Amino acid sequence: MYKAVQKLKSPNLSEVVRDELIRLITQGILQPGTRLNEVHLAEQLGVSRGPVREAARELEGLGLTTSRPRLGFYVADFTDAEIVELYEVSPWIHQALVHDFMTYSDAETCGAILRDVDSIATSSVPDFSETLLQFRQRMLDHVHNRYLAEQALSLYRRFYIVAALVRAEDGARRMKRIIETQRFFWTALAERDPSKAIEIMQADSRYWLQDIPPRFSHADDPRKGRT
Amino acid sequence: MYKAVQKLKSPNLSEVVRDELIRLITQGILQPGTRLNEVHLAEQLGVSRGPVREAARELEGLGLTTSRPRLGFYVADFTDAEIVELYEVSPWIHQALVHDFMTYSDAETCGAILRDVDSIATSSVPDFSETLLQFRQRMLDHVHNRYLAEQALSLYRRFYIVAALVRAEDGARRMKRIIETQRFFWTALAERDPSKAIEIMQADSRYWLQDIPPRFSHADDPRKGRT
DNA sequence: GTGATGTAAACTGTTAACAGTTGACAACTC
DNA sequence: GAGTTGTCAACTGTTAACAGTTTACATCAC
């Protein structure tokens, strides 16, 4: 009986490989632009190339890998412009989040979840990535819109990839900063101040982009475009 | 030389199958929940099962298919709640679009693009889906943030899937309504009235959800949650 | 030395085959 | 007749092998 239930959920190899690849990528063990050697990966994971290719293809759909015909799969790499775009969208996702899809009590719960994260703030960077992602997933569980939560998670994963590319500072400082921002964000919302929460996210975007030369003008401001 | 350039871009079978599957799904030829028979599809497309599986996996990452171990791939199906969630997120994406990532002159260009769509308004539904998607891609080309544009496209594709599930009205009327809304939206923006454009999208969401029983309360309104 | 050419190893793209599972249906029991 | 068991066809999961391409490197001409 137990076995039967397990069987229903028992994953196939593609899913195992996919999760392992996501781990390797989001933890920064596989750096952006790295080529995925199918044979090597297959041997390392004890499977054949089929499941490896399927996993890499799914990640391509998720935007975590890219592929070039006859050259194989690569860990997604981001140009400066693309990194800016990610950080530009982030405040909008969070705005939707706090305005329409979370209650103040949800915010309090998330703040409480975040309190537990302190203990891991000093561990290694890969462990930190793994744990923070889990915490973030727990927080996203409180978003009353699964689709938006999925978008947010997808954005977070990309942030982990570009982590090495923005604000080249040491891991400990990075970790501290990330947690503090999260704390500020949820505290502001729990204190019934959604505008402040949004401002925090906007400021955070600017902070991480500090090492990236600003775009000349991503789009004329519509308000300035008035006749 | 030409050949060499072509070769660089020449797709592999997975990509061909993927594009064909996207077409079949967004045109409604493969209905939500339909099981994808790998052998059958492979024969029909003249390839083996490998590329078919890879394509289906990539679509899983894109959210257009789902998979259940040992049972295979299915065209993504959406519960009423999930459909509501999609339409809830739509106005936010468009808000970001018009507020930060498009100029008024971009809006005018999109309006002009849309004018050409009139001719196809009476063709068959699959043709309409195909053509409208192309027009939408052309319009999204004017968004000054590729990541956001990709999110919007992904949302549109899902709307094509759920088309059969919301507002069960005849195809001609549906097509007319979709084009009119688009026209209103871009006109409002071109006329320097972003708030009106957003309102149009919000009203459109409500319209399509009319046949779906409203959720009791997707989230207490934060503003009501004030102490 | 510099650049072109040839060659072999490594790698990807694809296929076909095998193993194991699922689902449908007939046969059987009570 | 209702429910159980057995059986078989259809299908998925996985692997291994083959073909074709790319890359690196050595060889050769100048």
From TrEMBL, chains A, B:
Q: Which UniProt keywords apply?
A: DNA-binding, Transcription, Transcription regulation
The record's SMART domains line, in alphabetical order, gives:
HTH_GNTR
Domain HTH gntR-type residue range list:
11-78
Q: Which domain of life is it from?
A: Bacteria
InterPro entries per the UniProt record, alphabetical: TF_FadR/GntR_C, Tscrpt_reg_HTH_GntR, WH-like_DNA-bd_sf, WH_DNA-bd_sf
Alphabetical list of CDD domains matching this protein: WHTH_GntR
User: Matching Pfam families, A to Z?
Assistant: GntR
Question: What's this protein's name?
Answer: GntR family transcriptional regulator
